[in-house]
Automatic annotation (TrEMBL):
It is an enzyme of class 1 (oxidoreductase). InterPro entries: Ald_DH/histidinol_DH, Ald_DH_C, Ald_DH_CS_GLU, Ald_DH_N, Aldehyde_DH_dom, ALDH7A1-like. Belongs to the aldehyde dehydrogenase family. This is aldehyde dehydrogenase (NAD(+)). GO terms for molecular function: aldehyde dehydrogenase (NAD+) activity. The active site is at residue 263. Homotetramer. PROSITE patterns: ALDEHYDE_DEHYDR_GLU. The lineage of its organism: Bacteria, Pseudomonadati, Thermodesulfobacteriota, Desulfarculia, Desulfarculales. Residues 25-491 form the Aldehyde dehydrogenase domain. The keyword RNA-binding does not apply. Keywords: NAD, Oxidoreductase. The keyword NAD applies. Its EC number is 1.2.1.3.
Length: 511
């Protein structure tokens, strides 16, 4: 086994359920889940999954912990998160390497994902002293009115494979300082990163005498996932994944009148105007489309470029694509690793078949990539497609490095193409024109949750609220006031007078 696996406490066979701390691992009764590396297709280690009985134990621990955790002053909860941040700093490199090994993104991206966790820990600690409400003027004399925020309860967290650790931190650390406890179901494609996180947390939780605050249940959708979304003991389900998965989660949670926070698919576009700095646009496009092998929800999937610069843009971008080193993501100098598994490869090839059937033209890539010594890995060529405006497959999100390029003549036409998809996560325009940039950010501009000018679609900062509109689900995580999703609002009115006036001037006296 790799040395960094030992540093992270990964064994050949690991428990798939924990209620936190060194002694918090459960003897699980579910089936064994083997984690395969997309780098070479070989098994890394396995996890003994949680079954329905294990799930019950974890939920009960989370519920019991919530009773005490919610009464812990928020700044003290922030100190726990601070100490988690310290541990993440200690294990930044081995955890980043594990992300690369198990998910396939290059090492610098894996390290960047852990840094994002560290940044969130810092942010959440500061947030623990800023969970503010508003004071409002009452219309009744001798009355004071204000609002306050209370913890919700047990957060049910479902995360995806592409950001196996960062999204956990967005939710868990912020929900933690809000006073919630967390039950985490990670992707079955990346179970070992979840085990590693719980190992990193263990000494911090033990030092603070905590059990049941941060919990883990790795298991089948039928045994863990279905129970979570239908469980009234979980007032909020935060789920990251496909739009199809989000619809299922949203409907199930809504049926029990629970809350859902959905971060779903993206079909992100960049508009490149005739006056854009093409060098900046090319560099942003390359990272946005090729980074993480196109497996980010914010990956750039469409370029809408003015026809006057389209040929030059395509030619320069194709040359840049030809220079992208593809290979083992743990090796220095590699810019693109593998897709996560064979299904991802099959989905990409099926999409490219639809490209040809729909009149699109593949102008670079489109095939499998051969990496010497790693024949069992899932490597593909980053692909450029010159697309007609009505190419049907372009409306779908394919989690792979396919970039569609469409020309336009008028900016209004570009906006129509940009907004003409069901998803609405991230977006960008490259322009030196104040007119175009302001139009893009106006009420009639981008319909996405994230809209950038002269910055690509990928790589959001943690200080802003992250999320999107339309089929992306409407959820917001990370910065700004996203913390409110993990709490319940309460309006309070205090009468400090000796009278009992009613609102709206209503008189209801018995005399």
């Amino acid at each position: 086994m790799y040395d960094f696996l030992k540093k992270l406490g990964i064994k050949e066979v690991n428990s798939g359920a924990s209620v936190g701390g060194e002694a918090g691992w459960l003897e699980t009764g579910g089936e064994e889940l083997i984690s395969y590396s997309p780098i070479d297709g070989k098994a890394i280690a396995s996890v003994k999954q949680a079954n329905e009985k294990d799930y019950e134990k974890v939920v009960e621990a989370a519920q019991e912990a919530f009773i005490k955790w919610r009464l812990t002053p928020a700044p003290q909860r922030g100190l726990v998160v601070r100490d988690i941040g310290y541990e993440l700093r200690r294990f930044k490199e081995p955890l980043g390497e594990l992300v690369s090994l198990e998910m396939g993104k290059i090492k610098v991206e894996g390290m960047g994902e852990v840094q994002e966790m560290i940044d969130i820990a810092d942010f959440a600690q500061g947030l623990s002293r800023q969970l503010y409400g508003l004071t409002m003027h009452s219309e009744r004399p001798g009355h004071r009115m204000y609002e306050q925020w209370h913890p919700l309860g047990v957060l049910g967290l479902v995360t995806a494979f592409n950001f196996p650790v960062a999204v956990w931190s967005w939710n868990s650390l912020i929900a933690g300082v809000c006073g919630d406890t967390v039950l985490w179901k990670p992707s079955s494609k990346t179970p070992l990163t979840a085990v590693a996180i719980m190992n990193i947390l263990a000494p911090v939780l033990d030092a603070h005498g905590l059990k049941g605050v941060f919990n883990l249940a790795i298991g089948k959708g039928s045994q863990v996932g279905e129970k979570m979304i239908n469980d009234k003991r979980l007032p909020l389900i935060s789920a990251t994944g496909s739009c199809a998965m989000g619809r299922k989660v949203g409907q199930a949670v809504a049926a029990r009148l629970g809350r859902s926070l959905l971060e779903l698919g993206g079909n992100n576009a960049i508009i490149v105007t005739e006056d854009a700095d093409l060098d900046m646009a090319i560099r942003a496009t390359l990272f946005g489309a090729v980074g993480t092998a196109g497996q980010r929800c914010t990956s750039t999937r469409r370029i809408i470029v003015h026809n006057s610069v389209k040929d030059k843009f395509i030619g320069t971008l194709a040359k840049a694509y030809a220079q992208v080193p593809i290979g083992n993501p743990l090796e220095e100098g590699v810019l693109m690793g593998p897709l996560v598994d064979q299904k991802a490869v099959d989905d990409m090839m099926a999409a490219l078949k639809r490209v040809k059937e729909g009149g699109g033209k593949i102008i670079y890539g489109g095939g499998l990539a051969s990496v010497t010594g790693l024949e069992g890995g899932f490597y593909v060529e980053p692909t450029l497609v010159e697309a007609p405006k009505d190419l049907a497959v372009m409306r779908d999100e394919t989690f792979a490095p396919i970039l569609y390029i469409v020309g336009y003549d008028e900016f209004d036409q570009a906006l129509e193409l940009h907004n003409g998809v069901d998803q609405g996560l991230s977006s960008a325009v490259f322009t030196t024109s104040l007119k175009y940039s302001e139009a893009f950010l106006s009420h009639a501009g981008s319909d996405c949750g994230i809209a950038n000018v002269n910055i690509g679609t990928s790589g959001a900062e943690i200080g802003g609220a992250f999320g999107g509109e339309k089929d992306t689900g409407g959820g917001r995580e990370s910065g700004s006031d996203a913390w409110r999703a993990y709490m319940r609002r309460q309006t309070n009115t205090i009468n400090y007078s000796s009278e009992m006036p009613l609102a709206q001037g209503i008189s209801f006296d018995l005399d």
